[in-house]
Amino acid sequence: MHDIRAIRDNPDAFVAGWSSRGVEDARAIVDELLELDRELRAAQTAGQDGLAKRNAASKAIGAAMAKKDMAEAERLKAEVESLKSEIAAAEETEREVGGRLRDLLAAQKNLAADDVPDGADEDANVEVSRWGTPREGGPAKDHADLGEALGLLDFEAAARMSGARFAVLKGGLARLERAIGQFMLDVQTGEHGYLEVNPPYLVRDEAMFGTGQLPKFEEDLFKTEAFDWDRLQAETHASADLAFKEDEQRLNELVKDLQGSLDPDVFEHAWKAARAEMTQQAKDRHLPKIMQRVQSGEFSERYYLIPTAEVSLTNLVREQILLESELAEPIRYTALTPCFRAEAGSAGRDTRGLIRQHQFHKVELVSIARPEDSEAEHERMVGCAEAILRRLELPYRKVLLCKGDMGFSAKKTYDLEVWLPSQGTYREISSCSNCGDFQARRMNAKFKRDQGRPYGSGTYGSGTYGAKTEFVHTLNGSGLAVGRTLVAILENYQQDDGSIRVPAALIPYMGGVERIVAD
């Protein structure tokens, strides 16, 4: 998300930046943002002026009454009432215009870094390097054919229970997929310094907004709703308690009159009965209000299934202010999770096989860094992903994406593409992006510079006066996509007899199994 002050200060840079990323109406968007910004600031000024006038008039009322100038006091009271209406109108305008401004800002993609090549689509991407040599000759069957021939990959069974873009893996292939994920995690945590995290797979709207999936890409997400029974129960009791307290004073007055005139046992029974009856009446009075709130959906909790663990891992720092000392080295997280994607924009693409599934596993890498460290961290992250491909001896190439082919939140992206013999081309297996402060602004994730005048120690902590607070930079990448790595292994390690040789790096994770054969 962008700072409206930056757009205000340099609108032409945003017009040029968004235009270069394929936004056709960039000038109109900038003009609308600036107009909303003017309206918002005018409403804020009107509200502040109204408050100042109201406060001055309120003080003047006291002075006029002290002088017994009742006519002036009444005039000032009328002025205060008029100003209340003006202030309320300004506040309403501020809410309405502010909401429109935030919504429009939230829908705009990140600006590209200066060294990102121009271009509209993947044809303009720039190859940076290659590693390994694609094999020549030998079998080049498609991974789907290989898996089905082994009896270990079943698309029909998956379709019967879940529909298209799902698969059932069995036996040696199921074990191989598990081995791939565990191998990747061990390398990223044991050798590259990432902290393993087991995060939620279901997140709220705010988390998806933070990383940029919402509001623009909701159609690509799976979501579910659950009824919050705990909240309903708590608020029902709270409402009844409030109603009970309204009646309790009257009951206590009645008790005082009766206590001295009744037998103690009779009094205790009457007291309990009266309280029970009053509690039930309180619930009855407030139940219709609660039911109206239930019917409006207020107690329904909406959750989204994560399309990537980037969402969960990056949001670990949402609404936090870190110390710069915590970022002396970038914070590095990794997780192996299932990912869920509706693939709404992929109709007709990769409809067969494991390349584009609604559900798949991926090892995600996320870094949180200071602005001055994010470029170097980006290069390091790409290297961590490349290391997996090299250890598995899979030929690949590194590509720098052009401005038109990058994702919504990215300012710079490298793709790693692995060689697939059946297609005779390289296909994406990892995408590593530096998002700058774009996601951090959406999440309000900041850090405080270690500068300024020091204060305190001991019980009440310590810190610095005047230390500058800045937004962190966030980075994310695949280290790697497990399903696509499985595809690459099937195709690059296939044998003439249809079996699959297990890469040397994975044999320990396969319990010593060196070849996958028909079950």
UniProtKB/TrEMBL annotation:
GO MF, one example: ATP binding
Pathway involvement of the protein, from the record: Aminoacyl-tRNA biosynthesis; selenocysteinyl-tRNA(Sec) biosynthesis; L-seryl-tRNA(Sec) from L-serine and tRNA(Sec): step 1/1
Main location: cytoplasm
Catalysed reactions listed for this entry: tRNA(Sec) + L-serine + ATP = L-seryl-tRNA(Sec) + AMP + diphosphate + H(+); tRNA(Ser) + L-serine + ATP = L-seryl-tRNA(Ser) + AMP + diphosphate + H(+)
Positions bound to L-serine: T308, A309, E310, R341, E364, N476, S478
Residues annotated as signal peptide: none
Residues in Aminoacyl-transfer RNA synthetases class-II family profile domain copies: 175-503
Subcellular location: Cytoplasm
Function: Catalyzes the attachment of serine to tRNA(Ser). Is also able to aminoacylate tRNA(Sec) with serine, to form the misacylated tRNA L-seryl-tRNA(Sec), which will be further converted into selenocysteinyl-tRNA(Sec).
Protein name (Swiss-Prot/TrEMBL): Serine--tRNA ligase
